[in-house]
């Protein structure tokens, strides 16, 4: 595993295992993406609802890095799922990004109508506007329902995952169905950066708590999307390929799970 490592998705595409997340990056988005691309990131994770797709697109163009070397994810918002404006929503996102395809398009939340939305995304994939299709915030029950009605197994499920929030049942189901899991809020939005047991490991490896957490997730086979608007942290979050947690240390990290969400619950959200 090194910083160029990519995971093979079930549709044959390859995705870099570490991405810059830009939720709540606001006016700092363009600089953060430019800093990340300079640091070696080749995977950016945005969403229509973050209201920063334009800044992401500008940074990609300004970086001078060829389009096909960068993996771009965006997400279909709930209002567009409910009103079945899938094609229109994707076109808007592509226009915002200034791109003619996205590498990954995700159903952002299991809002009512997600099966129909997904079936439309299957068509958009065939048309070449989306390389890979996936979902976000789907629990096992949502995935079971989806898989029973669609033709293509999602390549990704992006869910809140950090030391205090591991949905083992969903992760296991994804593994069995060759769906790659991505962790949003891998640092618990910062809440996991003061856990004493992780500090002990950080001291042992001369790494930060953030680096230990991200490394633990990668070793579990989970793709990470840490968010930061600070160049030093963006660099730090990628510098996790020169140490390895032991089997015992992985178990110790796994035991920190409290099923404690920092974000909304996919079984009862109201937006
Ligand atoms: P900032 O953007 O000011 O750097 P998550 O990805 O789990 O949502 O966590 C993001 C939060 O953690 C943000 O508040 C971010 O702040 C902070 N953060 C990201 N990377 C680090 C790091 N290496 N050390 C400390 N805080 C970090």
Helix/strand layout:
Layout: E1 6-8, E2 14-16, E3 20-21, H1 29-39, E4 43-45, H2 53-63, E5 71-76, H3 78-82, H4 86-97, E6 102-107, H5 114-126, E7 130-136, H6 140-147, E8 156-160, H7 168-176, E9 180-184, H8 196-205, H9 209-219, E10 223-224, H10 231-238, H11 247-254
Parallel strand pairs: 3-4, 4-5, 5-6, 6-7, 7-8, 8-9, 9-10
Antiparallel strand pairs: 1-2
Helix pairs in contact: 1-2, 1-10, 2-4, 8-9
Bound molecules: adenosine-2'-5'-diphosphate.
The site of adenosine-2'-5'-diphosphate (A2P) has 18 residues, from helix 10.
Number of strands: 10
Structural class call reads: alpha/beta
Strand content: 15-25%
Biggest beta sheet attributes: 8 strands, parallel
The helical percent reads: 25-40%
> What would the principal axes of the Cα set say about the shape?
globular
Order of helices and strands: EEEHEHEHHEHEHEHEHHEHH
Q: How would you write the strand order of the largest sheet?
A: 3-4-5-6-7-8-9-10
Bound molecules: adenosine-2'-5'-diphosphate
Q: Give the CA-CA distance, first to last residue.
A: 38 Å
What does the model show?
With 271 residues, the chain is an alpha/beta fold. It contains eleven helices and ten strands. An eight-stranded parallel sheet has the order 3-4-5-6-7-8-9-10. Helix 1 (29-39) runs parallel beside helix 2 (53-63) and helix 8 (196-205) packs across helix 9 (209-219). The longest helix has 13 residues, at 114-126. It is globular, with a radius of gyration of 18 Å. The termini are far apart. It binds adenosine-2'-5'-diphosphate. Residues 21, 185-190, 193, 208, 210, 226-230, 233, 236-237 line the site of adenosine-2'-5'-diphosphate.
């Amino acid at each position: 595993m090194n910083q160029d490592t990519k995971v093979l998705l079930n549709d044959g595409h390859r995705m870099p295992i570490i991405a810059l997340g830009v939720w709540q990056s606001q006016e700092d988005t363009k600089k953060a993406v430019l800093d990340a691309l300079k640091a070696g990131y080749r995977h950016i994770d945005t969403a229509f609802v973050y209201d920063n797709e334009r800044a992401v697109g500008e940074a990609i163009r300004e970086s001078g890095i060829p389009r096909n070397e960068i993996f771009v994810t965006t997400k279909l918002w709930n209002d567009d799922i409910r009103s079945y404006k899938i094609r229109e929503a994707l076109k808007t996102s592509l226009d915002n990004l200034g791109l003619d395809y996205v590498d990954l398009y995700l159903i952002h939340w299991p809002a009512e109508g997600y099966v129909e939305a997904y079936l439309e995304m299957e068509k958009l994939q065939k048309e070449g506007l989306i390389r890979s299709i996936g979902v976000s915030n789907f629990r096992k029950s949502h995935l079971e329902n989806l898989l029973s009605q669609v033709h293509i197994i999602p390549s990704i499920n992006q869910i809140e995952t950090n030391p205090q929030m591991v949905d083992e049942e969903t992760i296991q189901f994804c593994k069995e169905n060759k769906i790659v899991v991505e962790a949003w809020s891998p640092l618990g939005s910062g809440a996991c950066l003061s856990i004493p047991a992780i500090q002990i490991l950080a001291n042992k490896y001369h790494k930060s708590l953030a680096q230990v957490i991200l490394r633990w997730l990668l070793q579990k086979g989970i793709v990470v999307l840490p968010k930061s608007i600070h160049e030093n942290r963006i660099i730090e979050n990628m510098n996790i390929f020169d140490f390895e947690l032991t089997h015992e240390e992985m178990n110790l990290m796994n035991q920190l799970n409290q099923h404690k969400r920092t974000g909304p619950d996919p079984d009862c959200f109201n937006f």
